[in-house]
Target: Short-chain fatty acyl-CoA regulator family protein
Amino acid sequence: MAREPVSRPLYLGPRLKRLRRELGLTQQAMAEELAISPSYIALLERNQRPLTADLLLRLARTYRLDMADLAAEERDDYARRLSEVLRDPIFAEIDLPALEVADVATSYPGITEAMLRLHTAYMREQQALAGLRAGAGTDAASDPVGEARRFVAARRNYFPTLDSKAEALSEEIDKAGGSAEWLRRQGVRLRLLPADVMMGALRRYDRHAEQLLLEETLPLQARTWQIALHIAYTALRPDIAALVRGESFASETAAQLVRRALAAYAAAALIMPYDRFARAVEAHAYDMDALAGRFGASFEQVAHRLTTLNRPGQERVPFFFIRVDAAGNVSKRLDGAGFPFAAHGGGCPLWTLHDVFRRPGEVLTQWLELPDGQRFFSIARSVTSGGGSWGRPAAVRAIALACAAEHAPRLVYAQGPQPEPTPIGVTCRLCNRAACTARAEPPLGREILPDDYRRTAEPFTFAES
Model:
């Protein structure tokens, strides 16, 4: 007679804790919704109690989750991953029996997760160091941000399925009388709550109570954006998932960054539907403040949306987009218009992108000329995020759009006499302009002359060859 399989206790501590954090719940709040004690939640998360079948069903019903996903054997996965990490030659001299490894993974999931994170960070640093030594930069696994940017650039920052679905959904929302009423018809209530109740979140979707919660001090444009993001993550989830599934990423971080980028793209398409926005762009000659007012969007959202108007046969001006902080760190870059921005190292200080911090809120325009003679037109301005109330920090960044000079006459910003372009370089290491007082370092391949007897205004003087 065949023996019935013996069911093993189900320990899902890390998964339960991750779920709770994703839902933005405290242990107290989850305990109340599941009708159990907070101390029991704490024991479950520490793997000191197994998850019962009844509680598993309750979790699935309360938060509308797939029970098969919840019940997946995370313990075995942890043990497998930890075993793979411990096969690294760095641990070669240590006796690590398989039973001990499995016991650590089962009994101490927090320690296991910490070990896995440390080893992942160690491997990425090793790969980056090896790439630098070989002069080849870093690989995709150690640069998830670069991989996500390449994914977007390869598609010219244009995703037709998201645009068409968002356009139809936007019309449906307008007919319903706005996003709040449309959400209500979907069974979702929109609520504004104080910052202390939101516990640091700007937006949280309470799947148990079917409520979309927003921090009450968000300005109107930010509120509109967060609602659009929620709709993108829910109503357009299958379309976003299909795009992510269709690609093989070197790391889960890269996949998550792409998913976030696609959700932001869909949210922008909901607020600024392609056809309507493209017509308005021409009518207002790319005036971003006018477009922001017309669509209830921010200056940065409009600038970002301008880079996506690449529908075949209906293309608008191709733009390069960049966002940097005061230290020069690039937090967003959308490659387009053939503008050669340096992937590593500082940009050119002569570009007005770096001046906007001294002139907040002012639009600065500039004609640019690269060392090879290419000319571009640039629009730069500072933007602020965060803040909203006394004592809350705000982040000030600079954004810029750049297009090839031949497209500039279509922009309201380029009307009137054209001044002489500012000579700039991609980065000092790649710029051979000798007469530049702003230079930080000599270009590659150029020998500098001694300044024992003669010193010029420029930091370096170069030999002829």
Summary: Residues 139-315 form one domain. Strands lie at 189-193, 203-206, 211-215, 320-325, 330-334, 364-369, 375-386, 394-404, 422-423. Residues 1-6, 133-138 have pLDDT under 50 and may be disordered. The CA atoms of residues 145 and 254 lie 6 Å apart.
